[in-house]
Design goal:
5% of the residues lie in helices and 52% in strands. The chain contains 3 helices and 24 strands. The longest helix has 14 residues.
Length: 427
């Protein structure tokens, strides 16, 4: 597939839809956003040096200037600002940040966006288990509360979670980067779209034309001792989360049949893995996702499956020692796929939503040994709308982590319970 096809189609749609949109129009500026504040309690096996309770909050708002030309073309921009980062200190904490900033045009041809944004799959709504009892679609609230050694079984270091810049527990393609996106109109419930992203590790006003990245994260090095000094020799990079020329195609279906509701979705995400400056090469991006959700009379059930395959894993199975290339079990690379499975249900009656779900995430873990990392999360939650836009919520999660990175010295397996009480506001 030509990696520039999506960008070209979006540009053509933009030109055809624009026409003679020269009339000056006053812009309407819309402001909206959401806030949550929550208290959590964690009972965790690996809790040495950790508190059991803590609080956190986040404030997020959108500024959206929009206008409409005489020919019907709508256009504008959006920025989403977050007040959720930093710890007060001398270098400046509690700072504002933003995670979306793009320009858009829309009309009968659909919508075209250019700028920093999520992927199409994330932006149009991932079809998976229903989570209306959680705040604003934030699927990974419980995972954020896990800390310590067990955290290595949840976040970072694996192909799916690192590439998606998030948790192993949700079917997201959601790396935020500078990209161009096309979203079609919806016909009989069906919508298609896609994105083109030059690279997933660059955004905003930054320009990064490097074709590779610095070599980090090593596998297969051997220890040698010379003159009483021990050093590691010949390591090769084991994983690459930097991808370039990424393309995405997705579709979703959303339709009502009297009291029945049907949602279906799927997508594919591809791209080229960046090589390391040390010469290591990696598996290209090759990820796909499917999901479905069905509803009737207040009940909803859903499931989804995402497979990142071996995206980002090293192609090498040997290491360099002096002038010789050595192949041994020590350097063997056990390439397990990264996958995410979600299953859940919820019931809504008036202002009350009650839900439950099961999530499983897996990836290759330690590439030097046979096995994989796996996390299972079991969840119960409820939400009550006190007034329009204002809600109170509670959730309980039990997690069980099995990690092949465990050793006799460091046991990274973990399990525990999480209780979260929350207040939300959407405006």
């Amino acid at each position: 597939m030509n990696r520039y096809l999506l960008a070209g189609c979006a540009a053509v749609a933009l030109v055809l839809g624009s026409g003679a949109a020269n009339a000056q129009t006053k812009f309407e500026v819309k402001v909206g956003g959401d806030v949550f504040a929550e208290w959590g309690y964690v009972d965790q096996d690996k809790d040495s040096g950790l508190r059991s309770t803590e609080m956190r909050n986040r404030f997020r708002f959108n500024l959206i200037p929009t206008a409409k030309a005489d020919n019907g073309l709508e256009y504008g921009a959006r920025i989403r600002v977050r007040a959720d980062t930093g710890t007060p200190n001398s270098t400046g904490g509690r700072t504002l940040a933003q995670d979306n900033a793009y320009i858009f045009v829309q009309g009968g041809f659909g919508q075209v966006r250019a700028g920093t944004a999520h992927t199409y799959n994330d932006e149009t709504g991932i079809v998976s288990r229903p989570i209306d009892y959680l705040p604003f679609g934030l699927y990974d609230q419980a995972a954020s509360w896990i800390n310590g050694a067990g955290n290595n079984g949840l976040i970072g270091g694996g192909n799916g979670s690192t590439l998606a810049n998030g948790s192993m527990l949700w079917p997201t393609f959601g790396d935020v980067a500078t990209r161009i996106m096309y979203i079609s109109p919806r016909f009989a419930g069906l919508q298609i779209g896609g994105t083109y992203t030059p690279r997933n590790d660059d955004s905003q006003n930054s320009i990064n034309r490097q074709s590779n990245v610095a070599g980090t994260g090593f596998l297969g090095g051997v220890s040698t001792t010379t003159g009483g000094v021990t050093s590691n020799v010949g390591g090769v990079a084991s994983f690459q989360g930097s991808m370039q020329d990424m393309y995405e195609i997705g579709l979703n279906y959303d339709q009502k049949f009297d009291a029945f509701g049907v949602k279906l979705g799927g997508g594919y995400y591809g791209g080229r893995a960046s090589d390391n400056t040390n010469g290591a090469s990696f598996k290209n991006l090759n990820a796909w996702q499917v999901g479905g959700q069905f509803s009737f009379a207040g009940f909803a059930i859903g499931a989804s499956y995402t497979d990142w395959g071996k995206s980002g894993l090293t192609k090498l199975s040997s290491y360099q020692l002096d002038s010789r290339v050595v192949t041994s079990p020590r350097a063997s690379i056990y390439k397990s796929d990264a996958t995410t499975l979600n299953v859940g249900a919820q019931y809504t009656t008036g202002p009350i939503v009650i839900g439950a779900g099961w999530m499983r995430g897996e990836d290759s873990g330690d590439l030097r040994v046979s096995g994989k990392r796996r996390v299972d999360m079991y969840e119960l939650g409820a939400s009550y709308t006190v007034a329009p836009g204002l809600a109170v919520q509670a959730q309980y999660d039990y997690f069980d982590i099995k990690n092949d990175q465990s050793t006799a010295a460091v046991d990274r397996d973990d399990k525990g319970s999480i209780v979260i009480l929350r207040t939300t506001l959407a405006f």
